[in-house]
Amino acid sequence: MSYHLGLDSSTQSLKGIIIDPVTGTIVGQATVNFSKDLPQYHAAYSPSGDPLEKHADPLLWLAALDLLFTRMQADGAPLDQVVGIGGSGQQHGSVYLNAHSTQILANLDPAQNLVEQIAPALSRKTSPIWMDSSTSAQCAELTAAIGSRLQTDTGSPAIERFTGSQIRKFYQHDPGAYADTGKIHLVSSFMASVLTGTHAPIDFGDGAGMNLLNLKTLTWDPAICAATAPGLLEKLPPAVPTHTVIGNLAPYFTKYGFSSAVAVAAWTGDNPASLVGTGTTRPGLAVVSLGTSDTFFAVLEPYRTDPEGYGHVFGNPTGGFMCLTCFKNGSLARERIREETQVDWTFFDVTAFEKTPAGNDGQLALPWFEAEITPPVLTPGLRANFEFATASPETKIRAIIEAQILSIRVHSQWIGNFDTIRVTGGASRSTGILQTLANVFQAKVETIAVQDSAALGAAMIAAHAVGQHRYEALSQALAPATATIAPDLATKATYEALLATYLKLEAAAKG
Ligand code: XUL
Question: Is residue 471 part of a domain?
Fold first, then answer.
């Protein structure tokens, strides 16, 4: 058998999915949950105490990789039949490696674990991740140096969580450690480097989340790199298309039962991988991923950028471009409000929507429990247009969910119209949320079988890059729609009115 393994190294977990591309089935699956399985490592914290700063311990991802493969082997997953590996990582997060890293990666000893061997290769103990919004000063400096070309050429204006401003902050705050850094990786290319035992390239999908890749030339932009930090261009791995086979699995991993000839495809970001794993292949079809953060993404044809500057353009792993907008207060906010209202998930997902009318009588609550990315709001706090504290649980829940979905609609209008929205992520189990999504967009909503669409997409990328399987056939077999929710046409006017209310509330909140 020729199976392909997809790995997704995200904020809260590392997941693995093995696919058989011929039968279109999943033949193995495992997860390492960071807070449950590896609580000794930080997945998102602030080393300095600044609440806008969010870093992770990169050793966590290494411990997770060893643990995932140990688990898969113990479960009898067919690792010996895997011929290709693809992967995805939480986007924007960066890992800093010193001059010894090349040697260390090339000589991984199966008798020791990854953490103890790779720890000495780090020139920076922590990795800033996508939840970090502490680099406004650096973003302002980059904008002043480069001007509007930063957005039109890299696909996004200077963004706090994007890697460029994070690298600049590191260089400014710790120039010595920056100078000791030989290679700067994304989470995705770092994991690929560990798997191949050599510095891996960065793909166009994840590389576009750095504010450093010129999407018109598909190369690192020398002027932007120079304005970001001295010598940066030399510290970046090459940028390549996602379908590039970057090397073979390092001999270290044969201890888990892998064969000695497994090819590894370039890793990408979790959102570009999800685009593939949800079968999103045509304009007019969009994906809403309801995870820790909510994201909205779609194929983008032709290349253009968001006039508001909130949407980002990344490389599409299947070729061309995709766009993505990230709303940080996704499940973060849903979990918060469920705890606060002390209801169970059935009430939250279903009952709350049965007990309240579509449009919630105009009551909305902007769910910015944490500093928000879209729209950018640095002062956290809920903003409601009604007496929130004394309202019923069902009113509070609908007020939050409708505001979340209206925000997605408002900030995706620049891309065009959508006839179908596919949903993925944990909260896509909620019938109330799905119907609200269909009504707010007045579009068909489709669910898909596999929730872990990034890991599935990563496996599909491997099957394409290594096994030469066609993406159309892979998506038909592995990512078909499982249910369709039609919009309630009678709610169209209600949501047009609520959209106007939302816009006023958002404008007031932004000041
Ligand atoms: C996208 C983003 C998040 C992370 C989450 O720009 O910041 O979706 O990729 O893993």
Answer: no
- For residues 242 and 203, the answer to whether their CB atoms sit within 8 Å is yes
Q: What is the number of the ligand 1 atom nearest to the C-alpha of 289?
A: 8
- Give 386 Cα–ligand 1 centroid separation in angstroms: 31
Distance 91 CA to ligand 1 centre (A): 5
- Which contacts (CB < 8 Å, 24+ apart) does range 467-472 have? 467/2, 467/4, 467/21, 467/83, 467/84, 469/21, 471/276, 471/281, 471/318, 472/281
Question: What's the pTM value of the predicted model, to 2 decimals?
Answer: 0.92
Domain that holds residue 34: 3-266
Q: Whose CA is nearest to atom 6 of ligand 1?
A: 326
In terms of domains, do 413 and 330 share one? yes
Compute the distance from residue 188 Cα to the ligand 1 centre, in Å: 12
- Residue 158 located in a structural domain: yes
Query: For the chain, how many structural domains are there in total?
Result: 2
Six-digit token pair at 304? 């253009």
Q: Tens digits of per-residue pLDDT, 166-225?
A: 999 999 999 999 999 999 999 999 999 999 999 999 999 999 999 999 999 999 999 999
Same domain, 301 and 241: no
